[in-house]
Amino acid sequence: MNQSVQAVIDRSTDDIVDVLANYIDLKRSGTGYKACCPFHDEKTPSLSISEQKGIWKCFGCGEGGSAIDFVMKMEGLEFIEAVKKLANQFHITIHKSNKPAEKPSGNRDALVPGLFNQKSEIRKQKKVFVHLSLHKVI
Ligand code: ZN
To answer: Which residues sit with Cβ closer than 5 angstroms to ligand 1, an ion?
Structure first.
């Protein structure tokens, strides 16, 4: 995982109360906070937030998780979209890595030797086929 993404996760864990307070009204309760859960209909608060642990949990409907989980659920976002939204809020810049994935590409060839070569051969043949059939039409 990218370092700046990790920074957003850490920050949102530390500031879980601030993150959730953007969406719901929080009330101090003992060592943490309580709120009416936005994920099910209720009049008495059963969602509790632990500032120390950086997690929230609803004892009414069972929903719970990290600050990022909360933003994902509230806004219907993917994980990385929620991270970007929070990064913006925390003024953290997400550095885009140019590598498409962390999987080393060499490994796949090692697992199935020759598979990728075969696939590209098939692709080449298809191209030739399309090329030929176009010429036949003309
Ligand atoms: Zn709930």
So the answer is: 37, 39-40, 58, 60-61
Q: How far is 67 from 60, CA to CA, in rounded Å?
A: 18
This prediction has a pTM of 0.68
- Tokens standing for residue 118: 């075969």
Give tens-digit pLDDT for 38-71.
999 999 999 999 999 999 999 999 999 999 999 9
Compute and round to an integer the Cα radius of gyration of the chain.
24
DSSP annotation of 65: E
For residue 41, report the distance from its CA to the centre of ligand 1, in Å. 7
Q: Judge contact between 34 and 26, C-beta under 8 A.
A: yes
At a CB cut-off of 8 Å and minimum separation 6, what does 68 contact?
8, 9, 12, 79, 82, 83, 86
Question: H or E element: which one contains 113?
Answer: none
Read off the tokens for 100: 């498409």
Amino acid at 72: M
